[in-house]
Amino acid sequence: xxxxxxxxxxxxxxxxxxxxxxxxxxxxxxxxxxxxxxxxxxxxxxxxxxxxxxxxxxxxxxxxxxxxxxxxxxxxxxxxxxxxxxxxxxxxxxxxxxxxxxxxxxxxxxxxxxxxxxxxxxxxxxxxxxxxxxxxxxxxxxxxxxxxxxxxxxxxxxxxxxxxxxxxxxxxxxxxxxxxxxxxxxxxxxxxxxxxxxxxxxxxxxxxxxxxxxxxxxxxxxxxxxxxxxxxxxxxxxxxxxxxxxxxxxxxxxxxxxxxxxxx
Amino acid sequence: xxxxxxxxxxxxxxxxxxxxxxxxxxxxxxxxxxxxxxxxxxxxxxxxxxxxxxxxxxxxxxxxxxxxxxxxxxxxxxxxxxxxxxxxxxxxxxxxxxxxxxxxxxxxxxxxxxxxxxxxxxxxxxxxxxxxxxxxxxxxxxxxxxxxxxxxxxxxxxxxxxxxxxxxxxxxxxxxxxxxxxxxxxxxxxxxxxxxxxxxxxxxxxxxxxxxxxxxxxxxxxxxxxxxxxxxxxxxxxxxxxxxxxxxxxxxxxxxxxxxxxxxxxxxxxxxxxxxxxxxxxxxxxxxxxxxxxxxxxxxxxxxxxxxxxxxxxxxxxxxxxxxxxxxxxxxxxxxxxxxxxxxxxxxxxxxxxxx
Lengths: 264, 356
Hints:
The structure holds 2 protein chains of 2 kinds.
Chain A: H1 2-26, H2 30-37, H3 40-73, H4 79-91, H5 94-105, H6 110-117, H7 126-151, H8 154-162, H9 167-178, H10 180-195, H11 199-204, H12 215-225, H13 227-250
Helix pairs in contact in A: 3-7, 3-10, 4-7, 7-10, 8-9, 10-13, 12-13
Chain B: E1 2-10, E2 13-21, E3 26-30, H1 37-45, E4 52-57, E5 60-64, E6 69-70, E7 78-81, H2 93-103, H3 108-121, H4 137-149, E8 155-159, H5 167-183, E9 187-192, H6 195-201, E10 204-209, E11 212-217, H7 219-224, H8 229-235, E12 238-244, E13 253-256, E14 259-262, E15 272-276, E16 282-284, E17 294-306, E18 312-317, E19 323-328, H9 329-335, E20 342-347, E21 352-355
Parallel strand pairs in B: 3-9, 3-10, 7-8, 8-9
Antiparallel strand pairs in B: 1-2, 1-4, 4-5, 5-6, 10-11, 12-13, 12-15, 13-14, 15-21, 16-20, 17-18, 17-20, 18-19
């Protein structure tokens, strides 16, 4: 009896997750998809999404690597506070993140006034989109990088130190290559999260075609006038998300640093 | 010269070790697991910090706890081969060996020759393109050695380099390693739990027991004059430590905590160390009578063929002190000796080697 209930519950979840995706895909024929993608509105949103999400990912990786390293290797005051701060965007409602970004970087915000002195303005600009995406995507990379660094046996760092490698050299030549599968997976997760970012972007950067209107925003807008366009955009985003997840699943076994038999 | 005075506390374990070693020689640190052997290497390498003491190599002071001086590992002229080699799995053998030269900023054109030289020295120049996981255990050991030697360090640290290899490879490499270490100008610290390796490879042996030096000296000194039961067991002999009861008389006697031992030579005053070779001990099921003056009794706790599969058997008794006798297979079957059997171990006064 319990078994039947468990199977029913499981099946319900599979339906809940799978049915919307399936119906989304079934609504569009491949030919229609190709036709629609060529529309300027969609192309524009696609281009903007790719540029901003990649820029956000690069930012997150560059800023996240040293933070993940410090959190793993060192003990310092405020470490737990820093950990909570970095995890927070994962659970924070994205619109709240957008409002917070506005209060910080808006015209009257603390950092906003300072940036204005240099002629830089973030709200309602493409740069603002990147900042919003980096804000929500950072925890995914830092978390994966920490897990990856923790998996690397300390004996390799000791060996590097005994071979004249100062910590910086050991980091770049040993730790990063050995943690590469996790770092790439984390970067991919961050990228996917940045690509799907909606709430913080529309709150902080607005919805201007060609400037701040990314794919998710275009989907939302299209839904109100052109349902078919919204579905096409959605299928595109679904394909990207699916590709990222599948790549992460397959990647680790194809990268160095993991013990594996040589191909004969 | 290496001058090491090492004090380090880790939880319950306290390390207090001092020794010196000369360039071009091999010092073997031998002891059971948990004796602190690896700790010594890590402190000398600079991977761990000293609580007390110092590490000096030649004119270079690497660490001095008193002055709060600690040069990090990457600033020390020391090569280290950890027990499991820790070859970088993402790099080829060539790049593993080139790691040190590159990290230390060696000019590009000299790196290839330095790597080739190191790989040739250890006898695997043809394996440069392989990845570590494509190597056998013995080849990995050589690659790790080449990696540590590529910078021609003043001090070479080897942590149980042969212990993860099979018996046959180990024997072959032992001889080869000795030949190599003799040729190298560097000072080698070699850690092992294997007494045979200690005897074969060493110019100097430092015996570690529970974080302390039980005894240090050349292999001849240790074989002939063991100072602690641990060292005696290591070199495979029986040791009594005591004081003379009488200094004159025809049959001098030494009082030890385990009982009286009669010896043949006239004893001087002061502490007396007595060794009894396992071959001098005869075993019997009844108390012996006759000319064997010293008798101890105990149960058989272990019987080991010596050499493995050989004609003789080492019999270990739980007597006080623990005694090891080496007898022939015939003697074993004549006594129908088995584990747990109560036996008498006897040796003559003339079989005792005494030293102060």
